[in-house]
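Loading example: each entry is read as two labelled lines plus one structure line.
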Amino acid sequence: MKAHGILAYTDITSIAPLASLERDAWHIEKPEAEPKRRMNLMMKKICRFLSPLLIAALVLGSLPVVAASQPTPGATLISTEEALSAERGQSHRERIHTILARDDVQEQLVAQGVDPAEVEARVAALSDAEAAQMADQLEELPAGASVVGALFAVFIILLVTDILGLTNVFPFTR
Amino acid sequence: MLTSRVWYVENARAAGVLVLRKRLRKIPRLRFAGLCLILLLLTGCAATPQLAETTQQRLPERLLLDDVPFHGQRDYQCGPAALAMVLNAQGVEVSVDALIPQVFLPGREGSVQPEMLATVRRHGRIPFVIEGNLDTLLTEIAAGQPVVVMQNLSLPAWPLWHYAVAIGFDLEAEELILHSGETPQRIESFKRFDATWARSDRWAFVTLAPGKLPETINEDTAIEATTAWERLQGAEASLPAWNAIVERFPGTAMGHFALGNARHAVGDDEGAIHAFKQAVTNDPNLAVGWLNLGLLHHARGENSQAQRAIQQAADLPGKWQAHAEDALNRL
C-alpha cells in the first residue's frame, strides 16, 4: 500500500514535466485541431442530415424522367434526349444531376432578381445542357451589357486600344 | 592662356555634347523598337480576318438586310433588343418590353447566352448556334438571316459584353453592318469587329422557324438545337424540323431516330417504324435505334420482328445492352 503510494508519487513527479509539455503542445495545437474536429463533427452531422434528403431528391428527381419517356401507354421508347445524352457518354448519374440542376437554376434566378412568376417558364425553355451550365456557373457566364470599370487608367488603356482598332468602347474614336 | 582655356572648355563641351548625342540617338532607337514591338504584339492578334477564296466567290460584293427592324437598347438591355430584332424579322410580333422579363437578369445587369437561346424557343423559333468564323457569319447574312453576335467590346480584363445583330457587309471595304446598341446600321471594319467578336469565342446564332435550317449548320448542331426545341414545344410542332434535317442530311442515323420518336409521339407508328429502320440502315451500330424499333414492333404485337430488332440491340455492347436484354426477357 505504502509502496504503491511511493510509486504513484514518483510516477507523478516523473510524468509531471512530460505532462506539462504535453499540455503546452496541446495549447499550441488547440487552435488548429479544435476547429478541425468541430468541422468534422459538423460535417458528419450535416451529412447525416443531408444524405437521406439527397437520396430522396435523387429518387424523386429521376421519377419525371421515367414518366417523361412514356409519351403513349402503348410503347415505352427511348427518348431522343436520352439517346443523345448516352451518345455523348453521359452516365446515368450525370443525367440525374442535369435534371436536378433545373431546381437549382430556379433558385438562382430568383436570387438574381427575376420575377418569381417568370422563373418557371424561363427554366423550362432551357435544354438540359444549358440548365446544367447555368446551375454550375451562372456567376461566371458573360452577361451581355455589363458595365466597364470606370478607372482612369482603364479609360486610357481602352482609349489606346480603341484607336488601334482592337476594342470598341468609345464611339468617338472612329 | 585665356584662349587656351576657352578652347579647353569648348572642347570639353563639344565632347560632352557628342557623347550625349550618341546616347540620345541610342535611346530613341530603343524606344522606337520597343513601341514597334508592343504595337506588333497588339495588332498581331487583331489582323484583318481573311475570307476563304470559295466564300469570297460565293458572296455578293455588298449586301444589307434592310427589312430587319431596329430596336435601340435602353440601359443594359441589348439582349432583349437584339432578340426583338431577329424575332420581328422572322415575323414574330414581340416587343422589347415583353422580352425583358423573359431574358434579362437584373442581378447581372445583362442577359446570359443560354437564356438568349431559351427565349427564342419560347417564341416558337429554333435558335441555331453557328460555327464561329467570318465565312459562316457572312454566308448566313447572304442567305437572308440576321445573325445575333456576342462581342466583348472591351479587353478581357474589363469585359463589356454586348449583343448585336449583324445585318450586312461590304467585302471591298471589309466592313460589317450591325444593328448595335443605340445605333442602327452601324459600320464596323472586319478587323475591329473580329477582334471584339473573338473574345466571346465568336459566339453567334440565327433563329428559324421549324422546317428551315441555316445554310452552314452541321448535322450534330442541328439535331441538338431541334432536340432542345422539341423538349419545350412538343413532338408535333417539331416534326417539320426533323423532316428538314433528314432531307438535308440523308445519311443521318440520329436524325431518322429522332424523326421516328416524334412520329410515334403523334401516333404515326408506321411512319415511326420506317424512320427507325432508316436510322439503323444508316448506322447498324445504333443500338438505341434497334431497341426503339423492336419496342415499337412489340407494342404493335409484331413479336417476331420485335425479337429480331431487340436481339440486334442486345448484341451491341454499350449503354443500351442491359436494357435490350431486359426487353428480350419480357417478350
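Strands of chain A lie at 143-144.
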